[in-house]
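Tutorial sheet, problem 5. The two components below are modelled jointly, 695 residues in total.
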Amino acid sequence: MSASTSAKTLYDKLWDSHLVKQRDDGSALIYIDRQLVHEVTSPQAFEGLRLAGRPLWRVDANLATPDHNVPSDVSERAGGIAGIVDEISRIQVQTLDDNCESFGVTEFKINDVRQGIVHVVGPEQGATLPGMTVVCGDSHTATHGALGALAHGIGTSEVEHVMATQCLVQKKMKNMLVKVDGKLGFGVTPKDVVLAVIGKIGTAGGNGHAIEFGGEVFRDMSIEGRMTVCNMAIEAGARVGMVAVDDKTIEYVKGRPFAPKAEQWDAAVAQWRTLHSDDGAHFDTVVELHADDIIPQVTWGTSPEMVVAVNKTVPAPSDFNEPVKQSATKRALEYMGLTAGMAITDIQLDKVFIGSCTNSRIEDLRAAAAVVKGRKKAANVIQALVVPGSGLVKKQAEEEGLDKIFIEAGLEWRDPSCSMCLAMNSDKLGAGEHCASTSNRNFEGRQGFGGRTHLVSPEMAAAAAIAGHFVDVREMMSAEA
Amino acid sequence: MKKFTVETGIAAPMDRANVDTDMIIPKQFLKSIKRTGFGPNLFDELRYTDEGVPGKDCSSRPLNKEFPLNFARYQGATVLLARENFGCGSSREHAPWALDDYGFRAVIAPSYADIFYNNCFKNGLLPIVLSDEIVDQLFTEMYAQEGYQLTVDLEQQQVRTPSGEAFGFEVEGFRKHCLLNGLDDIGVTLQDAEAIKAFETKWQQQSPWLFAKS
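Model answer (structure tokens):
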């Protein structure tokens, strides 16, 4: 089968529709529809504009909210910015406020109900829409690709560049299709799918590519599930992950505060309906998995590709052929304090974290609550945090009574922030502590100096909180049924 | 970015080889949320006799009286005379930020570390390469004459001494163009401002909801 020259991938379409200028050196100017701004990567960018006397090119294309440094602790949070104990964190959050004020950028401030993790807030508000180009000074910006948008994580100098020019200088990437067909089994989640994909292609597998997630599994998946998948595209090495627009996308967007209003809605939908890869479009790389082969996943090491199914054992260096992987495995086992050959279900846990831009949306919280309902946290788990992704997610969860379920089970119900995903606020692991975490990175020290992170789905994290060690959540749930 | 055309100013010495970026601006100052304000901590460990701490007011700190930048005769200097491999070490852009914030507009040395050299151009600071012999001559003249000023003329690609002697230097054409016109990456993109506006107008017609106020 030869690819038709006129058939385009979703990425090709989004690229072409935003191409301002192709330069002779192979780079291009791409128009950016939306920039999301948070407190960590924006201060030097605003400062750069101020020094150069440059205005924002388009003020209303920017939307800001503080997330990395805001406390999740409800009492610390109650004091607003002034109540943030850590001085450097407080200054960063205050600086975002000051910059948004002076440049006229809309900001959902620390205790605004619309505040939250920037990658939860964007879609929730309809501030990220199908067909948009979206950037943010954060590598997990690929999340927004779940809506059929082209979303890039960028650096601080690029943040300033987009603020000043509304364009990003980019070279076009290659197209990769990750295709998963079949039906996911009971208790198998979007997180397990994306971890299985990363386990298969590795953390560099998507380098230089824009990944489109296609196939029956992603078509069947909710929009929030697609966000979980696209969020971790960067963990497979790709700056961009995306899913084609379908009825679910359009239904999701409808009625959100920044979504097109009545008179523009039909035209928008007509345009969005074209946002899929054409039949016969060419992908440079295609990776295929089948749903039947995916069961709940747990990372055992210090890279997201160090992942196995929950019913497996921790691998040994000798299980790998390449010397580089053997030494990486040896180093990871030492850091993680694990022994090759031990069952994943024998890993004892000290903490549990349910949250992050990967898994802090209402569906994630519902799934976790369903597991802990009527059960109690294991005594050896000294802390189990549930950190909703936004004030609105928190409100919704409380209206559904999820907060009570968590609290009754012995979990802590917190305020929206990035929290223990990267430990920039006071939520941290101690040295040597093992954590079942619904976040996206298990790097050394990511959740605190010497901390040991295991990436899992919300259901698996909840089950681990109850058992005190990893368990196959499918067994815990079916035992009850 | 600031334009660089012609700069005439007092020359000051950094008379040692292999000055690294940690020496230019120590790591504890990288926590800042700003890219300005590094000037008081430029060469911090050489300049003061106590330990530099972020946020500390430098005006009351004990000065190292042996360090030339603390000499009255070099106050207000805008041209730094330096030795080979200036700016080696890390990639931190804080190094040119600190030199710029202190008030330097140009550095003259026999050679530079690559990354530092590139970073200078992004920040309006001109790093000039002159031969060992010429740099030696400039150091000698500077030490001999208080208030010694150098003129750096980017257009003519010349360094001129008070006696009127002129030394030519090389600079890549595109970098010269960007400095003369004050163009950083943003400045270069803004040269296509008309193309961006034209695109924006067309795009707004096609997708007006992307431009609606919430």
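Marking note: Chain A touches chain B through 44 residues (CB under 8 Å). Full credit if you identified this.
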